[in-house]
Amino acid sequence: MTLDELRQFTADQIKDMKFDLALSTKADYERMIRAVGDDFVAYLRSAPNSTFYKRKAALLWHLRFLLVESITSIEEAEAQGETNIGWRLDQARVYANLVKSVAAETRKESRSQKGKSKKVGLKALSKTGDFRERLVAAAGKAGIIGILVLSIAGVRPAEIAKGLALKASGEHLLEIHINGVKHTQTTGHERRAQRHDARRWSLTAKLLTLVKKAGGTLRFSRSTDSLREDIKSAAERAKLPLTISPYTLRHLFSAD
C-alpha cells in the first residue's frame, strides 16, 4: 500500500471503530481502551468478553487503534520535515494487513457461528413435529397464504412483498413464480420459478387447493411487517415460541 492508500484504509477503519462503539456496551470498550498501551495479550487471556468471537472483535479494535497511531506518527514526522519514514510505512502496512486478516477471519467465524445457532434452533423447534404445520393450522385467513408460501418455497419476505404468482399446473403441480430482490448482473436471478408436487406434502396440497379455488392463478403479495405479525399470531395460538419469524421458515427450507 502507498501512503495515500494507507490513509484511506485507516479512515475507513476509523468509521468501523465508531460503528463498533455505537453497537457495543460501554463497559466492554472501556476495558479495551484501558488495555491499549498495556499488555494486550494478557488482556485477551483474561477474557473479559466471554466468547471467542468477542475476543477477536476486541483484538481487531486494538489493531485498528495501532494502525491509526502509526499513521498519526507518519504525519507528525512529515510535519517535522523527517524524510526517512520508510520504516514507519512498513509498520503501518503490517498493521493494515493484520487488520485485513483478522477482519476476514472474524466475518468467517461470525457466519459459522450464526449457521450453527440456526441449526440448533431449528432442531429444537422440530422436536415436537413439523412446527410449520402447526403454524398453518393456527393461521388466520389473512395470513395463511403467506405462511404457506414461506414454508413451501422458502422465499425472502421482501420477495413476497414485491409480489409473486401462484399457478396450478395439472392436477397435482403447483408453480410459484418469484421476482427476485437480491440479484446482480453476475449473481442471482431477476425471476425464478419453483414447481412443487402436492402429493408430497399436505401444506403444498393445501396451497394448491386455495389456488384452484381462485381460478388456477393467484397473484399474492403481503408486506414484511404483516408477514411477521401473521407468524407471531399463529405461533401464539399454536403455543410455539414467539421468536419464530419469516426467516425461520426460510432457514428451515434451506436446511431441508
Write the layout of secondary structure elements.
Layout: H1 3-23, H2 26-35, H3 40-46, H4 52-79, H5 86-125, H6 131-138, H7 144-153, H8 157-162, E1 164-169, E2 173-179, E3 191-197, H9 202-213, E4 217-220, H10 224-237, H11 246-255
Antiparallel strand pairs: 1-2, 1-4, 2-3
Helix pairs in contact: 1-4, 1-5, 4-5, 6-10, 7-9, 7-11
Please tell me about this protein's structure:
The longest helix is centred in the middle third of the chain and has 40 residues, at 86-125. This protein folds into 2 domains: 3-124; 129-255, no CATH class. Mean pLDDT is 77; it is low at 19-26 and 109-120. It is 65% helix and 9% strand. 25% of the residues are buried. The protein is elongated and about 80 Å long. By secondary structure, it is α+β, with helices and mostly antiparallel strands. It has helices at 3-23, 26-35, 40-46, 52-79, 86-125, 131-138, 144-153, 157-162, 202-213, 224-237, 246-255, and strands at 164-169, 173-179, 191-197, 217-220. It has 11 helices and 4 strands. The chain has a 4-stranded antiparallel β-sheet with strand order 3-2-1-4. Helix 1 crosses helix 4 and helix 1 packs parallel to helix 5 (86-125).
Give a short synopsis of this structure:
It comes from Devosia aurantiaca. With 256 residues, this protein is of the alpha+beta class.
